[in-house]
Predict the structure.
Amino acid sequence: MKPAENGLSDHLTMHGLSRRFGSFTALDAVSLSIRKGEFVCLLGPSGCGKTTLLRLIAGLDLPDAGSIALQARDITRAAPAQRDYGIVFQSYALFPNLSVADNIAYGLKPRHERQRHRLRVRELLDMVGLPGAEDKYPAQLSGGQQQRVALARALATSPGMLLLDEPLSALDARVRDKLREELKGLQQRLGVTTLMVTHDQEEALAIADRVVVMNAGRIEQIGTPAEIYRQPCSRFVAEFVGEANWLPATACGAQQVRVGNHALRLEAVLPPDPALQLFLRPEDVIIKPRWENAPNTVLARVDNISFGGALTRIRLLPEGMPGQVLYAEVCPGMLDRQPLVPGEIVPVELPAARLLAFAGDLPC
Ligand SMILES: Nc1ncnc2c1ncn2[C@@H]1O[C@H](COP(=O)(O)OP(=O)(O)OP(=O)(O)O)[C@@H](O)[C@H]1O
């Protein structure tokens, strides 16, 4: 077991995992370590290989190359039962003809210890917020309740690892948000190492200790939610996670670019490409109360203001950048202090510390 940077040991280590289906490479030399007690999300668009990777870890499929180690024990080709995990799928996958209690106790052994199992089932139902549901059948439960039962079943044997394949995506938004919070709380209380597959970036950022962004069978970036959101390492990650402004630019110095008629400075290092795309989150665009001759500040016309609850979205048309639209997101409180009206011209700062540059043409 190798101690990781934060003192926690690696629970699961994958090295050079590849999986091909005919001539198609679904996973391409993926290496990843998950620390004990960590909550890791595999995030990426449909078809990027998330489920394939989860299935290799679960032993439901075998890799064409590479290895998987569980606490330094090679489990690459071990049977699923030798891998010490509980699993929850998107579809609730409960046995419809078994009661909730029997569904949860299904994997508990030895089978004759019925009294001990009854106590364990009660404990698990309390844990997942369904006390007293022992005698119900899956058809009598809502989707959210069924997923709670599936979670209880996955945790019944106190596995060292929890594998979750889009467990919340079939639920409606309110149930999903509530269950997401509860799942995170439960995972932290139990300290169970957890790997969850999701294509929902908001979900991944909200729940994970670390996010693994995948694209076309490869890992694009591994980082904390804040690192993934604030410092995307590639165009793909920057486009896939969150909202952003994209401004076509040309390099004109070590950390200087030209956008339309404006010269802008970046703190980030520029890629070695003359044609660039600047990236700036809408909440990092600063609408200033008055004009000052400050760096990275341009004038823009307020084109539209749309109220969005916690944040108001402002569509700006910067002067000297023909055809360019810039979105700013501000707290409603800021607009109380500094009211804006469509048509007015405002100074806008594009902070050097928040601008990133990526090579290439317009994003798709
Ligand atoms: N058994 C299989 N035979 C052939 N191709 C497969 C098989 N399993 C997966 N694939 C292909 O491998 C690629 C990755 O699939 P995978 O299910 O891992 O994607 P995913 O990222 O989990 O996507 P989704 O979010 O849609 O589930 C897809 O193009 C899929 O069609």
